[in-house]
Design brief:
The complex is a heterodimer of chains A (324) and B (258).
Chain A lengths: L1 H27 L12 H35 L12 H14 L8 H20 L1 E2 L2 E2 L1 H24 L3 H11 L11 H17 L1 H8 L2 H6 L4 H23 L5 H13 L3 H25 L8 H22 L1
Antiparallel strand pairs in A: 1-2
Chain B lengths: L1 E10 L7 E9 L3 E5 L6 H9 L6 E6 L2 E2 L5 H7 E4 L11 H6 L13 H8 L14 H15 L3 E4 L8 H18 L2 E5 L3 H4 L4 E6 L2 E6 L1 H4 L2 H8 L6 H22 L1
Parallel strand pairs in B: 3-8, 3-9, 6-7, 7-8
Antiparallel strand pairs in B: 1-2, 1-4, 4-5, 9-10
Classes of the chains: A mainly alpha (324), B alpha/beta (258).
Chain lengths: 324, 258
């Protein structure tokens, strides 16, 4: 048992060290490669005004999506669950797209705030619909999320077909996970919400492990499954809403990262939650760095790159499940 | 000393009463079986005992207190419940699962993880994924978790279902060891009359009513079993053959251990 713990600690330390190196390289990468040893005024300006806020937002978003995926896969006992399965992204996309396409820009944070309101409102609707006579049941929650998600996506498509051209392009970019517009203004609120959600999830880490074994065994271990599921759902919704409102819809991180982490360090939520934050943040950081570098001056949305990296692994996982 | 006691317990899922005035008890260190046809109420009785369902009338005592008066943690220290179907997809390793038994404890669990794994014979499988275990081994891993949990009453819903006769007998021996060495009370539902005949005591239920209870010899009579299961033929031949197999396995097992 001790040997098991020490190997987990070593893997976690190696992942953190590798992530730090990758983040530093990502900060330096872009249309103009920055030399961290020559900090002239232009380099400093680029670093402070563009690279650092983008990197920070990418880390926060990716981390939030990774942790949300780990939570939702646990409470739904479904390895293919991800933060967007609950329709939260559809609600955020619809609200943000309204803002972008109809020019609702009273102040600079109006789109993120609209997205956050859309995400939280959708999350609340999913909880209300997912609440059956036996409380908050995973199957009902999933079906409610999928149903509401389809409905909101249909409304979004309808709105997009009647919108003006300029707003439409911005909305499509936003929905692909576009970090090109981020700045420091987004960070405080996003950081607060994500830390709040992560903190709540970490206090319920044992409940998350127990729920993964099913409600009856969670009850036998002394937990109230309905209450634990509600707290964890709130934590995942807060983090997903904050993530989507900062930089749009980024796919696959929430689905793939928890699987990769579990494969290396086991499935105990005490380890999986923090390491999913590290791995998810790092993956989105890399995706954003690649997106702004490979086709410069054209910027490819980080969400598209993350999905291009994530999709093959997802297909590989499906293949593995088939062979089992 | 009684550790589980039902007194005049009535329960219904809908408007129609399913269980009426059910009373029985399980003593400390006793291995008690619950038998009856499908739909007789075996799982309902176990869920009531675990606190997963609440009776409309009557009282269910675990130790000195009614099950409903315990907090979640306190209840988990008194009683553990394992459903019939254990999740094949649970992504944990054996060690991670068994360690979850420490959750309701305050640093003073009945057995350490290592001790529990040794008792169930999985000491070499700490880092093995649950999905890689056989059905019998998986069941034993979950039982190890309940031993770490330190529960005084272990409720098992058809633990022998879908196990071959060797694993059935291994599990029976493990439960006998736990009952004898740790003074845990085991209350389990089962269908196999031959295995039922080897337990300390049996309860026979039908339509939510207790038909008979006592030592297996007095409960598993031709008349009672035929009446409970609506059989037209004698079960004598079936029981004789089943008992012979169990006795043979018991002898073989004892010889292996010597």
């Amino acid at each position: 048992m001790k040997r098991d713990n020490s190997s987990t600690f070593l893997i976690a330390a190696a992942l953190c060290a590798a992530s730090l190196c990758i983040i530093l390289v990502s900060v330096a990468s872009g249309p103009r490669l920055l030399n961290p040893f020559i900090l002239d005024s232009e380099t400093c300006r680029t670093l402070l005004a563009i690279r650092l806020p983008r990197t920070a937002v990418a880390l926060l978003m990716g981390g939030a999506l990774g942790a949300s995926g780990a939570i939702l896969q646990g409470i739904f006992r479904n390895p293919l669950a991800d933060p967007y399965i609950l329709g939260i992204s559809s609600g955020a996309s619809l609200a943000a797209s309204f803002g972008l396409m109809f020019g609702i820009s009273l102040f600079t944070l109006s789109v993120p705030i609209l997205a956050f309101i859309g995400a939280i409102a959708t999350g609340a609707a999913v909880v209300i619909l997912g609440h059956g006579w036996k409380g908050l049941q995973p199957e009902r929650l999933l079906l409610a999320g999928v149903g509401i998600g389809f409905f909101l996506s249909a409304v979004l498509m309808l709105v997009m077909t009647i919108s003006v051209d300029d707003g439409l392009k911005r909305a499509i970019l936003w929905m692909s996970g576009d970090l090109s517009m981020v700045d420091w203004e987004l960070l405080p609120a996003g950081l607060l919400l994500i830390l709040g959600g992560l903190g709540l999830a970490l206090t319920r880490r044992r409940g998350l492990n127990a729920l993964t074994l099913g409600d009856d065994i969670a009850h036998s271990l002394g937990f109230n499954p309905i209450r634990e599921r509600l707290f964890l759902f709130i934590a995942a919704s807060l983090m997903t809403a904050a993530s989507v409102s900062m930089g749009g819809v980024v796919g696959f991180i929430g689905l793939v990262v928890p699987h990769v982490v579990r494969r290396h360090v086991g499935s105990d939520a005490v380890v999986v939650l923090p390491l999913s934050v590290v791995a998810g943040g790092t993956l989105l950081c890399v995706a954003d760095a690649i997106g702004r570098t490979v086709a410069a001056p054209l910027e490819l949305p980080a969400g598209v790159i993350a999905a291009l990296i994530g999709s093959p692994y997802f297909i590989y996982l499906l293949g593995q499940r088939k062979t089992h | 000393m009684t550790t589980l006691e039902f007194t005049n317990v009535s329960f219904s899922y809908g408007p129609e009463r399913f269980m009426d005035q059910l009373s029985f008890s399980v003593a400390e260190g006793e291995l008690v079986g619950l038998m009856g046809p499908n739909g007789a109420g075996k799982s309902t009785i176990l869920k009531l005992a675990a606190g997963l369902l609440s009776p409309q009338k009557g009282i269910i005592m675990i130790g000195e207190h009614a099950i409903g008066t315990y907090s979640g943690k306190e209840r988990a220290q008194q009683v553990a419940y394992l459903p019939q179907i254990l999740d094949l997809q649970a992504p944990f390793r054996v060690g991670e699962l068994v360690r979850m038994g420490e959750y309701p404890q305050n640093g003073a669990q009945a057995l350490t993880v290592e001790e529990a794994l040794l008792l169930v014979g999985l000491q070499d499988k700490t880092n093995t994924h649950l999905a890689e275990l056989s059905g019998g081994e998986r069941r034993r891993a979950y039982i190890a978790m309940t031993l770490v949990q330190g529960a005084r009453v272990l409720l098992l819903d058809e633990p022998l279902a879908s196990l071959d006769i060797k694993y059935q007998f291994d599990l029976y021996r493990l439960l006998k060891d736990i009952v004898r060495e740790k003074k845990v009370s085991v209350f389990m539902s089962l269908h196999d009359i031959g295995m039922g005949a080897m337990l300390d005591r049996l309860l026979l239920v039908k339509h939510g009513r207790l038909i008979a209870q006592g030592d297996p010899g007095s409960v598993l009579t031709d008349e009672i079993v035929q009446d409970t299961y609506d059989l037209n033929d004698s079960i004598g031949l079936y029981m004789a053959a089943n008992r012979s197999v169990c006795r043979a396995l018991a002898v073989a097992s004892l010889q292996c251990r010597m």
